[in-house]
Write a structure and sequence with these properties.
α11 crosses α12, α12 (324-334) packs across α13 and α17 (445-466) runs antiparallel to α18. This protein has 21 helices and 25 strands. With 666 residues, it is an alpha/beta fold. It folds into three domains: 9-313, Rossmann fold (3-Layer(aba) Sandwich); 359-499, Orthogonal Bundle (Isoleucyl-tRNA Synthetase, Domain 1); 564-651, Nucleic acid-binding proteins (OB fold (Dihydrolipoamide Acetyltransferase, E2P), Beta Barrel). 40% of the residues lie in helices and 18% in strands. The protein binds ligand ME8.
C-alpha cells in the first residue's frame, strides 16, 4: 500500500530492547542516535514522534526470570525501570515508551495476527527446525551440522536445538517478488547502501515460510482463539511500531504518524526489519516505512559488546564521571553511523578533554569571562566588521546550512566534524586577535567589543546546531549568554548570527566539562560501584593541562581543616619569571624559567590562553617550591605556580610592588 511518509512529520523508532538484562552502551548508542534525530527534527519545526521501549516476551526472558527465581512478569517489571532510568539520565526525549506486556499492545498484535489469518497469509502446519534462543529465531540459512549432531547459530555462535512442533506459518515465500520490487522502487529503504545490497541478495536467494507461533513457550501473547499457541516473539515485537503509535487504540495518532520515517537498529537485527517486517506489513495492507537504518556495533576488545558475551560496558559509570553530554557526544562522534567501533578509554578521554573541555568549554569560558572582565558583562559600542569578522559570520551561515543537510541525511558524525572545524576557526580568530592585549589599550575598546561580540555570536550559533547532540550543555551555554528563549523553542529558520546583540548581559560561565585523567577513569570503572551521585566537574588547575603523565593532587573534602604545622610544610616562595615559551602542540601550556632567589627552576603552567609571554616576563608570582616534580609533556616541572581558577581560566596574582625573588610567602 503506497502512502509515503509525510515530509512534515518525523516518526523515529529504536528497537525495543530485551529485558533479560540491564542496558549497556550498545543500547544507549541506538537510543542516542534516535534522540539526536528527534531533537533535530523538532528544531526544524516537524511534528515528531519518538518511540522506544522494551521487548518483554519470549523464551529468553522466561529463562532469565527462572534463573533469578522470579516470575517473568516480576522480572520484567524490575528490569524495565533500569532502561527508563538510563534514558532519563542521558536526556532521551522519547514521546512514548512501549512495553510489549501492556494490554493495548497485546490486543493490537492479536488483531494483526487475525487479519493475516483471515487473508490467508498465516496458516497452521508442523515445523521442524533449529532454534536459537539467544536470537529467538529458527535458523533460516543452510548451516552445516557439527559432528556432535547440533548446529551453531551463525549470528550468535551458540548451540541451537532441533525443535518439532505444530505451528502457524507466515507465508513469507509469497513475498519474495513483492519485496524485491519494493527494494528496486525504494533504493533508500535500507541504509547504508551496502546493507541494502546484502538484504537484496538474501531475498534473491529465496525465502522460506516462517514459523510464527510456539507451543513450548508460554510467556507471550496467545494466538486468538487457539491459546495453546504463543505468538512468536519477533511477530509480537515488530508490531510495536504500529501499536506504539496508536494502532488498535488511537486511530487519529496512528493515521497521523504511520508510516514511520526511520527505524533504527544495529546490523544484528537488520534482517528482521528489512525482510520480515515489510512482508508482515504488506500482508496486512499497511503502508511501508521510509528507511530502515542499520548502524554498526560497539565492540569491546574487538568483540561485539553483548549481554550474552558478558563484555558490556556500564554507561552509568561514564555518566557519573563525565555526565550525559560527554557520552552522547563520544558515541555519535567516534564512528560513522554504519561502521563498527572499538570502545577505548583512551579515545573517550581524548574526546572529552580535547574536543569538549579544550575546544568548546574553553572557548565559552574565555569569551564570557573576557566580556565580564572587560565590559562588566555587557558588550557596548562595537567597531565595524573587518574582513576577518565577516569570515566568522559567513562561516556560521555555511555551518548552519551544512549541518541541516547532514543531520537530515543522518550523517551525525559528519555534522559534528563541521561544527568542530568551525570551532577551530573561532578559536584561532580569538587567539590571533589577542583580546587580552587590546584590553590594555583604551582606544581599542570598540575593536575589542567587536571581537568579543563576534566570538559570542559564534558560540550562540554553535550551541544551537550542536543542541541535538548535547542538549544539556547547549542549554547552559544559552543561559550564560543571557538568552531569554530556550533553544528548543527556536526554529532552525529563525537562527541568525546576529541574534546575539550588543547590550545583552552575559552571566558568569561555569566549567562545562570535567577534565578527567585516564587512570582515574579506569579506577572508577574498576571500582564499578553503582552509587547514583554524579561527580561535579573538576575545574582545571593552573598547571594541569590534559596529560596522562602528570601526578594529580588528591581532591580535598570540602571542610578538611589542616593544622598550621601542615600549612607550614608548604614552601611558598616569590618567583620572578625570566623566560616563557609555549609548549609545542598544546593549547595553554607555557614552559617558564623562574628565579627563586638562590636557584633557577623550570615550571610548566597552563596559562598560555590567558597570558602572553610579555605579560609574564619580569613579573613576580607565587609558587610552591617543595612540591614533588611532575613530568608534563616530557618536561620536568620543578615548582607549581598559584593561580585563581575561574572555570577553565587561570588568573595569576601579581604583586603591587617589587618583592625580591625567593621571599617566603606565609
Ligand atoms: O534484538 N553495538 O533486542 P536487544 C551497537 N528485542 N548497538 C547495540 C549493541 C552493540 N554492541 N548491542 C545492542 C533485540 N545494541 C530485540 C529487538 S525490535 C522490534 C526487537 C542495540 O536488547 C542495537 O540497536 O538484543 C541492536 O540492534 C539492539 O540494541 C538489540 O537489542
Amino acid at each position: 500500500m503506497e502512502k509515503k511518509p509525510d515530509e512534515n512529520k518525523f516518526y523515529v523508532t529504536t528497537p525495543i530492547y530485551y529485558v533479560n538484562d540491564v542496558p549497556h552502551i550498545g543500547h544507549a548508542y541506538t537510543t542516542i542516535i534516535a534522540d539526536v534525530l528527534a531533537r533535530f527534527n523538532r528544531l526544524r519545526g516537524k511534528e515528531v514522534f519518538f518511540l522506544t521501549g522494551t521487548d518483554e516476551h519470549g523464551q529468553k526472558i522466561e529463562k532469565a526470570a527462572a534463573e533469578k527465581g522470579l516470575s517473568p512478569k516480576e522480572h520484567v517489571d524490575r528490569v524495565v525501570g533500569r532502561f527508563q532510568e538510563l534514558w532519563k539520565a542521558i536526556d532521551i526525549s522519547y514521546d512514548a515508551f512501549i512495553r510489549t506486556t501492556e494490554a493495548y499492545h497485546e490486543k493490537g498484535v492479536q488483531k494483526i495476527f487475525q487479519k493475516l489469518l483471515d487473508r490467508g497469509d498465516i496458516t497452521k502446519g508442523t515445523y521442524q527446525g533449529w532454534y536459537c534462543v539467544s536470537n529467538e529465531h529458527f535458523l533460516v540459512e543452510d548451516v552445516p551440522m557439527e559432528k556432535e549432531g547440533y548446529k551453531i547459530c551463525p549470528d550468535c555462535g551458540i548451540k541451537t536445538s532441533l525443535i518439532e512442533e505444530e505451528t502457524y506459518f507466515f507465508r513469507l515465500s509469497a513475498y519474495q517478488k513483492p519485496l524485491l520490487d519494493f527494494y528496486a522502487a525504494h533504493p533508500n529503504f535500507v541504509r547504508p547502501q551496502s546493507r541494502m545490497n546484502e538484504v537484496m541478495s538474501f531475498v534473491e536467494g529465496g525465502l522460506q515460510d516462517l514459523s510464527i507461533t510456539r507451543t513450548s513457550v508460554k510467556w507471550g501473547i496467545p494466538v486468538p482463539g487457539d491459546p495453546k499457541h504463543t505468538i512468536y516473539v519477533w511477530f509480537d515485537a515488530l508490531n510495536n511500531y504500529l501499536t506504539g503509535i496508536g494502532y488498535g487504540w488511537n486511530e487519529e495518532l496512528y493515521k497521523k504518524f504511520w508510516p514511520a520515517t526511520i527505524h533504527l537498529m544495529a546490523k544484528d537485527i537488520l534482517r528482521f526489519h528489512a525482510i520480515f517486517w515489510p512482508a508482515f506489513l504488506m500482508a496486512g495492507g499497511f503502508p511501508l516505512p521510509g528507511t530502515v537504518y542499520s548502524h554498526g556495533w560497539w565492540l569491546k576488545d574487538n568483540a561485539k559488546m553483548s549481554k550474552s558475551k558478558g563484555n558490556v560496558l556500564d554507561p552509568n559509570i561514564i555518566l557519573r564521571t563525565f555526565g550525559a553530554d560527554s557520552l552522547r557526544y563520544f558515541l555519535v562522534r567516534e564512528i560513522p553511523i554504519g561502521l563498527d567501533g572499538n570502545f577505548s578509554h583512551e579515545a573517550f578521554i581524548h574526546r572529552v578533554n580535547s574536543d569538549l573541555a579544550n575546544d568548546l568549554g574553553n572557548l565559552v569560558q574565555r569569551t564570557l569571562t573576557m566580556v565580564r572582565n572587560y565590559f562588566g558583562g555587557v558588550i557596548g559600542e562595537v567597531g565595524p566588521e573587518t574582513d576577518e569578522d565577516v569570515k566568522v559570520r559567513a562561516g556560521f551561515d555555511e555551518l548552519k546550512a551544512r549541518t541541516e543537510e547532514l543531520f537530515s541525511d543522518y550523517a551525525i558524525n559528519r555534522a559534528l566534524e563541521e561544527i568542530w572545524a568551525y570551532l577551530g576557526t573561532v578559536n584561532k580568530y580569538l587567539a590571533d586577535h589577542e583580546p587580552w592585549k587590546m584590553a590594555k589599550e583604551p582606544d581599542k575598546r570598540p575593536r575589542l567589543a567587536r571581537v568579543l561580540l563576534q566570538a559570542a555570536s559564534a558560540i550562540r550559533g554553535i550551541s544551537y546546531v550542536l543542541y541535538p547532540v548535547m542538549p544539556g550543555s547547549c542549554d547552559k551555554i544559552w543561559e550564560y549568554l543571557g538568552e531569554s528563549k530556550k533553544i528548543r523553542d527556536m526554529k532552525y529558520s529563525e537562527i541568525t548570527f546576529g541574534g546575539f546583540r550588543p547590550g545583552r548581559a552575559v552571566q558568569e560561565p561555569k566549567a562545562l566539562f570535567p577534565r578527567v585523567l585516564l587512570k582515574d577513569f579506569l579506577a572508577e570503572e574498576k571500582a564499578g560501584s553503582e552509587s547514583k551521585t554524579k561527580a561535579a566537574p573538576e575545574p582545571a588547575s593552573a598547571v594541569k593541562e590534559t596529560t596522562m603523565e602528570e601526578t594529580p593532587t588528591p581532591k580535598a573534602p570540602a571542610r578538611n581543616l589542616i593544622s598550621f604545622e601542615e600549612f607550614t610544610k608548604m614552601d611558598l616562595r616569590v618567583a620572578k619569571i625570566l623566560a616563557a615559551e609555549r609548549v609545542p602542540n598544546t593549547n595553554k601550556l607555557f614552559k617558564l624559567e623562574a628565579d627563586l632567589g638562590t636557584e633557577k627552576r623550570t615550571m610548566i603552567a597552563g596559562i598560555a590562553d590567558t597570558y602572553t609571554a610579555e605579560d609574564l616576563i619580569g613579573k613576580s608570582l607565587i609558587v610552591i617550591a617543595n612540591l614533588k616534580p611532575a613530568r608534563i609533556r616530557g618536561i620536568e616541572s620543578q615548582a607549581m605556580l598559584l593561580a585563581a581558577v575561574i572555570g577553565d581560566t587561570a588568573v595569576v596574582p601579581f604583586f603591587d610592588r617589587d618583592v625580591p625573588p625567593g621571599t617566603k610567602v606565609k
